[in-house]
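Hey,
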Amino acid sequence: MTPDLVLTDAAGAEDRDAILRELIAFNDATVGPSGARPLAVLLRDPETAGTVGGLWGRTSFDWLYVELLVVPERLRGAGFGRALLDRAEREARARGCAGIWLDTFDFQARGFYEKLGFEVFGSISGHPRGRERFFLRKTF
């Protein structure tokens, strides 16, 4: 069989799942299971119970990857960002993780993360153009 190459911006969940299955099978055969588990710490509105912000990530291969972290502007400066990361770190440690990694742009929260003990381990200049993206880690 010779597969077709199909470029699309409308791929579905089944397409992602097919790719992920192959990658997981390869990784498992090479280094063993990743132990991947989702991890979320949510900020909920007490009146509506709706999520207004929080942290979204996953533990995998003994590290917590923080994919998303946002505190609504009206709540910033009240310690919620620190609380989200502290709670996620406690859970990551409970899951046996060695550390946390994440990325942020120069116009976002690099200084905030560094105050919490994260260190830059890489960056991409010009992403987006005229700016910089940083990759940070905190080891336990």
